[in-house]
Each structure stands twice: as structure tokens, then as C-alpha cells.
Amino acid sequence: MSIVTRFPPSPTGFMHVGNARTALFNYLFARRHGGKFLVRIEDTDRKRHSEEAVKAIFDGLAWMGLEYDGEALSQFARMDRHAEVAKQMVAAGKAYYCYCSPEELDAMREKAKAEGSPTFYDRRWRDRDPSEAPAGVQPVVRIKAPLDGSTTINDVVQGEVTVAHEQLDDFIILRSDGTPTYMLSVVVDDYDMGVTHILRGDDHLNNTFRQKIIYDAMGWHVPIFGHLPLIHGPDGSKFSKRHGAQSVGEYRDLGYLPEALCNYLLRLGWSHGDEEIIPREKAIEWFDLEHIGRSPARFDFAKLESLNAHYIKEASAAHLIDSSRRFFRERHGLELGDLAVSRITQGVEELKNRSKTLIQFADEAAFYARTIPYAFDEKAKAQIAESRPVLEALLEALAKLNDFSAEGVQNICKAVAADLAEGKLGKVAMPLRAAVTGTTVSPSIFEACAILGPEETCARIRFALQQG
Ligand code: GLU
């Protein structure tokens, strides 16, 4: 059997990490078996529909590197097909027109409430002759749910789950305005798309029993289901805004690499022995349904951050620089030109070790991209103000230095420290850092000067000395 999975998000304006994890699992399972991973946008709620919300989904998928097969489908565009299936079921005696008025339905609801019944619709049109239909009423179409017995679903994550049929009512599949309900659309689309495996959040488990009635009514093969436990917050309660960032876009904006978020989401709810670092190729090689966890996983921000630090260390300079360009721009107003890229590339190993996020990377590397005139922060200003003789001596010595390596610069600093700062290297390195970077926090200043080169380093010291 060729495997077909799907990701059918409702466009809500952002992509929740729970949805992202569902997409990832479906993607990995399809790729693992050389199958297809399809995307369908469940865009039938036209009142709230926005193209921007749809874009957020495609952006999220692209950022995470979850390429899908073929064209993404629009559920809304397929409404006629859904309605046609509803009518086929009526013709086959599997569904029927119901002409109940809102008042009748209200009365049924009240009665069911009083009796504590799990369903309310009393199926009064199920076997009634259509010739009794009241004039001028647009009917809904209801499915004939089984009246007794039970259905058991062998869920690949949850195991066997059974629901007694008395829990299931003859639910509506086509509204009186002729539009299909969600329950019908999902089944018709999944069938038409040839979906073999449905992995989705366990908030859809109850729907599965209703959807199976439609599959059975049409004589369609029922796909394999796996319902994933939801993600919880670190404290075990429902994961929500108060715990921290919720969407893929937020993590991107916080400076996470997609590799890290994907690895984290994969491990959150699936395991392969004790492996923590699972890059994409390994994930595709190893992913299986047997090792999806049955209980809700707690979101662990520290773990995600440490994975991000790991992937930052593993990344090439070019990848890191490209992924963090936006932070240089947004946070420092800097567009990276060739010179900046070359300097950052030379200093990248130390920058990597100092960065858990791309924001930290951009903040730490920004000085390489600055050009005179640049601003000094308050601490840097103070350092410069109290160390003018040190900076003047440094400038003189550095201007004459032939070996402008990190070691060469350090030796000059040591000599200046011996002369002017009782041998305390920090008393020279700190003002040098303040002058050259405009801040008091940076990678090794000796290496930084070597990378900037003699002309730029001396020009920056001179510029710093002109301040205040
Ligand atoms: N559109 C649904 C959601 O975003 C998914 C339904 C399904 O997976 O069957 O929750």
C-alpha cells in the first residue's frame, strides 16, 4: 500500500506548535515510506476567512522545511462535491431529509436534557415518507447513525477505543442552505485524496466515530487513525499564552532555527531510544507510529533552547548569517554587505558558542557590521572616558604592529597594561572593547581586532577618542 498522509489546517492566522507537530509527524511518516504528504486548507468558514491566515500556514510549512506533494487543496472549493456525496447517501437510503423547525428542535433539546440523554434529535424524519414534508421548508440532510451496538476503532496511538452507538446521533451532513458540514467535508476530502493514515490531535478522537459512519455509508475503506495527545505547558495545564510563545512564527521571531524547533517537536511526543539530537534525515529514517507517546507531553523551553544552541553550533556560517539577517536589520538597522559577512564568517566559531538564539548571534556579531560613526552604550562611554591614556597608548602601538593577529594584539595590550595599568590586562582589554564594539560585551576582543584588521581597529579607537 502506498502511504498518503495529510495536514488539513483551519486558517486561524498563525500556526500553533501543536499543529506544527502534527504536520511534522504526517510529513515524516509519508517520507519514511516513500508515500505522499498532502495539504488541504479547511477554509469553509468564510466569515472569518483571510488570505493572510492561509499565508501563515504556508509560511510555517516552508520555514519548517515540510514540503508537501502536489497542490494544496481548498476545502471550500470542493463544496459541490461534498453536497453531491450527501445526495448520493440520501438516494442510497443512508441519509435522509429532515424538516424539523427550530421550535421542534428546541423542544427535543429540552426533553433530552430533562432525561439526561446523550443525544437529542429523536430521528422523527428517519423513516417518514418524504411526501409528508411541509411545504416551503428547506430540509437539512442527516446521516442514519447505527441504532444499537458499538464501534471500536483501533487507534495506532490510543489503542482500542469503543463508543456505544447510543452516544451518536443522526447528525447533519448538509445544511438547509445546501452547504456541507465539517464532518462530511473532511471525510469526502480524505477519501478523494486517497488518504491512508490520519494522524491528528486527540481533540478529534470523538469526531472519528461520526466520520466512520460516513465512510461505512459510502462503502469507503476507513483509513488508519492515530490521535496524538495534546501538548501541555510546563506545569501540566493546557499549553497557553501565559506559558510562552505558541506559534511557529513566534519561535521564528525569537531566533530559533527551524531545525531545532522540528527536532524539539519531534521528541515531544515520539522517541527513538534515548536519542535527543535527531536531524531531518535521521527523523525520516527512524519515524514510526509505534513510538508515539500516549500521554500529553510538557513543553520544556529550556530543552528547546539547548537544542537551538546545538543546531547553531552545527550550522554553517552562511546558513547562520542568512537566517539572522533580519535580526541585524530589525534590531540594529544593519544590512550585511560582503565585508560584514566575511568578518562574521571569520569570527563565527566564537559567536556560535556565545549564542543560544539567532537574536543573540546578531547582537553579538553586530559590531562586525557597523561602520563609523556608530553609537556607544552608556557603559562603553564610561569605559572610554576613564581610559583615554590607555586608548591613546594602544592606538600608537597598534598602528605600528606588524603581526596583527589575535596574539599580536593581545601582546600589545599586555605591554600597555604593564606600563599603565599595573599589569591588569582587563583594564586595557575593556576600554579597547568599548571603543571597537561600542559595548562592553563581545567575543574575544583580541580576535575581534585581528578580524577587523589594523586600519579599521585604529580608525575605531580614534573615533572613540573623539567622543565626549
Ligand atoms: N482542520 C482541523 C484542525 O485544524 C483538522 C481536522 C482533521 O485533522 O481531521 O484542527
Report on the architecture of this protein.
- It is a single chain.
- By secondary structure, the chain is mainly alpha-helical.
- Among the domains are: 78-228, Rossmann fold, CATH 3.40.50.620; 316-361, no CATH class; 378-465, Arc Repressor Mutant, subunit A.
- It has helices spanning 17-32, 51-64, 79-91, 102-115, 182-192, 205-218, 248-253, 258-267, 280-286, 301-314, 317-332, 338-346, 348-353, 358-369, 378-386, 388-400, 406-420, 426-437, 445-465, and strands spanning 4-7, 36-41, 73-74, 95-98, 140-143, 150-155, 159-164, 172-174, 197-201, 224-228, 231-232, 297-298.
- It has a three-stranded parallel β-sheet.
- β1 (4-7), α1 (17-32) and β2 (36-41) form a beta-alpha-beta unit.
- The relative contact order is 0.09.
- The protein binds glutamic acid.
The CATH architecture term of the domain at 78-228 is 3-Layer(aba) Sandwich
User: Uncertain regions: pLDDT < 50 for 5+ in a row?
Assistant: none
Question: How would you state the average pLDDT, rounded?
Answer: 97
What name does the CATH topology of the domain at 78-228 carry? Rossmann fold
Question: Which kinds of small molecule does this entry bind, naming each only once?
Answer: glutamic acid
CATH class of the domain at 78-228: Alpha Beta
CATH superfamily of the domain at 78-228: HUPs
Instruction: Tell me the major beta sheet.
Output: 3 strands, parallel
Shape: elongated
Q: Order of strands in the sheet with the most strands?
A: 1-2-3
**Structural class assignment:** mainly alpha
Termini separation (Å)? 75 Å
What percentage of amino acids are in beta strands? 5-15%
Q: Count all strands and give the number.
A: 12
Number of helices: 19
Helix content: 40-55%
Give the radius of gyration.
32 Å
